[in-house]
Amino acid sequence: MGKIIAITNQKGGVGKTTTALNLSASLALTGEKILVIDSDPQGNLSSGLGVRKEQKKGLYEVYSCKIGIRDAIVQTDIANLHVLPASMDLFASEIELLERAENRESALKLMLQDIKNEYRYIFIDCPPSFGLLTLNALIAGESVLVPVQCEYFAMEGLSLLIKLLWRIRGGFNETLDLEGILLTMYNRHIALSRQVADDVRRIFKTKVYDTIIPRNIVLAEAPSHGKPAVLYAPNSPGAQAYISLAKEILNDNNLLF
Ligand SMILES: Nc1ncnc2c1ncn2[C@@H]1O[C@H](COP(=O)(O)OP(=O)(O)O)[C@@H](O)[C@H]1O
Ligand SMILES: [Mg+2]
User: Fold this and answer.
1) CB 13 less than 6 A from any atom of ligand 1
2) Picking from 51-55, 86-90, 201-205, 229-233, which range would have the lowest pLDDT averaged per residue?
3) How much distance in Å is there from the Cα of 125 to the middle of ligand 1?
4) Which domain holds residue 124?
């Protein structure tokens, strides 16, 4: 039942965490049971969901088998939304995983096996790098959702990522699917923004979501209040765009109507 989607792009600052936060919250608000996993040692997703630093026993402890996955999962303030948090110590997992004799790339997949069907969707917020944390997410995941910032060099980054995904399919996870490409930080007043959006649509066609995420300051402000924008300011254009993305995803997965 549960579908595991890795939110990934090796580029930083493209909207991965903002998407993980607001998409998972929007889906939870529709009544679907959602788990979102913070797989970035920066822990921005965790703080954006109001997880306090001292409370952050999370993915690192699970990777290093100090606690079980169920003991690390936290109920957020939003009904139906659970988070598996992370903090700086997750950096150590990159090294510790490397030192493992077995399951170094499939540790997360194995950990999620037991709980996968308790959720409708499990999202994994990836770090902006291509190490073992990302590899684990791409092997655990059934599909990848790729946020692309509507700016210069977006295309270069995207073609690199697609090549990488093909390699993962060839070597580790042959059924890994491209869930969709999400255009983010779009500004319709800027020609370059429109140009990038058009180019991405021309090349990736139906793989690009109809919903475009506009550049909207509320999306950047909300996390400092420990809330996703869809709760902090549900009527803002940014929140509305993520609510519309959630509908589109439910529709694509035939869950609506
Ligand atoms: N659509 C948007 N409009 C305005 N600011 C945004 C938007 N999406 C993300 N941001 C801000 O841009 C920065 C980078 O976004 P983030 O989601 O953290 O990217 P990533 O996880 O890919 O590194 C953050 O400060 C975030 O709040
Ligand atoms: Mg991030």
Assistant:
1) yes
2) 51-55
3) 13
4) 3-252
Residue 127 inside a domain? The answer is yes
- Encode pLDDT of 16-32 as tens digits: 999 999 999 999 999 99
Strand order in the sheet with 3-7: 74-75, 81-84, 34-38, 121-125, 3-7, 143-149, 177-186, 208-214
Instruction: Name the closest-CA residue to atom 26, ligand 1.
Output: 220
CATH code for the domain in which residue 97 is found: 3.40.50.300
Query: Which tokens sit at 220?
Result: 């950047």
Number of domains in the chain: 1
17 located within any domain: yes
Task: Among 10, 18, 219, name the best residue to mutate to test ligand 1's pocket (greatest count of ligand atoms within 8 A of Cβ).
Answer: 18
Q: Is the CB of 240 under 6 A from ligand 1?
A: no
What are the backbone angles phi and psi of residue 248, rounded to the nearest 5°? Answer: -65, -40
Find residue 111's DSSP bridge partners: none
Is 214 among the domain residues?
A: yes
Residue 257 has a pLDDT of 44
Provide the β-strand partners of residue 147. Answer: 182
Residue 257: inside a domain: no
What are φ and ψ of residue 210, in 5° steps? -65, -40
Q: What is the CA radius of gyration of the chain?
A: 17
**Under a CB-based contact definition with an 8 Å cutoff, are residues 145 and 179 in contact?**
yes
The protein residue with its alpha carbon nearest to ligand 1, atom 17, reads 15
* Of residues 77 and 257, more confidently modeled: 77
